[in-house]
Amino acid sequence: MSQDWWDVPGNPYAPAKIQDPAIAEPPSPPAPAPQGGGGPNQPYTAAELLALEGATAALVRLDCGLAASSRAVAAGWINRMAIEEAAASARLNGVLIDTADLRLLAWDSLDRAPDPDLAQALPLYDLVRRIVARHPRHLYTPRRLAALDRTRLTRSTGFSLWNGAADDVEAEERWAVLQAALAPDDLTRLRAAPALTGAAGFLAHWHRVRADRSAGAALGRLLAAWWPARQGLVMARRHNLDGATFEGSDTFVSPTHPAFAGGPVLMPSIGFLGHALEYRPDRQEGWLLAFLSAAARGLARGEVLLRRLRLAEVRLAEALRPKRSTSRGPQVATFLLAQPVVTSGRLAQALDMSGTAARTLLDGLHRDRLVLEISGRDAYRAYMVE
User: Per the record, where are the segments of Pro residues compositional bias (predicted)?
Assistant: First the structure.
């Protein structure tokens, strides 16, 4: 966390300054919310202050929990949350898909051809992977952001950084809108607010300049997800998560996979599941409270997932305790935690095991209820830990 975060205007956690009553200055007016809240130069409402305090505390708590977790748990958390964020973001774009189907499709384990909506959501998942794997300092300038669209390190057919943008937008128009959406003066103004207020204000600004039409609403939500890290409230990076133990999926061909880099703690789209009518960043009134409430719901989901992965880590460590020096038990546990979907073939390839040994191991863990079978098939089984 940056040292100057405590001094930003409107911070509910700033310690009170004790002054001599004889020289005490008159109290300053409440800090205005940025343009994503109740409006310019308007104070926070009591409900907004309570929501800001609760969501900020949850954000920092989850960030500290991830920082204290093992490399496998941290990688598994961001890999699983990226899938959920992509599915939720697709729903906000009007594409209704099942998260379980997207998980299987993204990890090459779906037993059928994807329907049109599911196929449309796969490039969106690749967009989430691409953005969450970047450092926030590479995302808030038009030139660096646009450069990501030229980095074709993806296997997803139809990938575009501008997912969901209108088809009739020309390159010149998109560039002009990006310059307006990422104007330094506007970003500096948003940095004067608490991190989550700034994230809400950024998303409102993204829609105000029509960047949702020219560059895509999903991209704006992902940039808002990184905003707390950009302001220093949470970490931008955790562990160095690269290593052979995380390989084994076809989606790992890209070095920008989130398991290698960490990712944002805030996943804004997840919080709007079941509350899609509240997603109105184009409306000034009530948007800040709606965003903070959604952030709290998304962070609560993240905390639940982190607790489950930590519990699974303990149970797997006990079940796969090495009985001899050549045992691969710890590597298997790490692989299961880090990967959202595991098959016997993928496990065998990653850890240099025989296919029979991998199937026997996974079947045993399934019988002990340490992994879930998610493919629904007998011939080709896929498992997950959560």
Answer: 24-33
Mean pLDDT in order along the chain per 10 residues (386 residues): 46 47 43 43 85 96 93 92 95 94 90 89 89 86 85 57 87 93 95 95 96 94 94 70 36 35 83 95 93 97 97 95 79 94 92 91 94 83 90
Q: 123 with 107: CB under 8 angstroms? A: no
Q: Examine residue 148 and state whether it is found in any structural domain, yes or no.
A: yes
- Please give the torsion angle defined by the CA atoms of residues 4, 7, 8 and 10, in that order, rounded to the nearest 10 degrees: 150
User: Quick one: which of 339, 355, 380 has its CA closest to 77?
Assistant: 339
What are the φ/ψ torsions at residue 372 (nearest 5 degrees)? -105, 140
* Model pTM score: 0.82
Fill in the DSSP letter of residue 16: P
87 close to 221: Cβ distance less than 8 angstroms: no
Query: 375 and 231 share a domain?
Result: no
Nearest to 330 by CA among 346, 310, 343, 313: 313
Q: Is residue 14 part of a domain?
A: no
**pLDDT at site 266:** 94
32 three-class SS: strand
Closest by alpha carbon to 264, among 150, 130, 98? 130
* Residue whose structure tokens are 């001599």: 20
269 and 377 co-located in one domain: no
For residue 148, what are its two tokens? 């990501």
pLDDT of residue 158: 62
Phi-psi region of 2 (alpha: psi -120 to 50; beta: other; left: phi over 0): beta
Q: Hey, which bits of the chain come out as E strands?
A: 342-343, 372-373, 382-384
Structure token pair of residue 43? 């104070």
